[in-house]
Amino acid sequence: MTLPRTVADVLTRHVSFEIESIDRMYCNVYQPRLQHPRAVAGFIRHHLGFPVASSAVLAPISEAFVTAIRAFAREHSIAMVDFVKGQRKDDVMHEHLAGFDGDEGVLFIGRAQEKAGVFRTEKRRDAAGLSYPWIVRATAMVNQWYFYCVDTDFGPFFLKFSSYFPYTAKLCLNGNEYAKRQAVKAGIGFTALDNGFATCDDPAKVQAICDDLSAEKIDTLLRKWLRLLPHPFTDADQDTGYRYDVSILQAEFSLTQMLHKPVDGRIFFEQVIRDNLDIGRPDHVGLIFDRRIVRKGRFRTPGRFRTRIITDGVIPSLHIDYKTSKIKQYHKLGRALRTETTINDTRDFAIGKRLHNLPALRQVGFTANRRLLRVQSISHDPAEGTTAIQAICAPTITDTGARVAGLRLTDPRAHALLSTLCQFRLQPAGFTNHDLRHHVAPLLGNTPEQITTSQASYDLRRLRTHNLITRIPGTHRYQVTDTGLRHALFLTRLHDRFLRTGLAELADPDPPPSSPLRDAARAYQHAVDDLTRQASLAA
Question: Can you give the pTM of this predicted structure?
Answer without folding.
Answer: 0.66
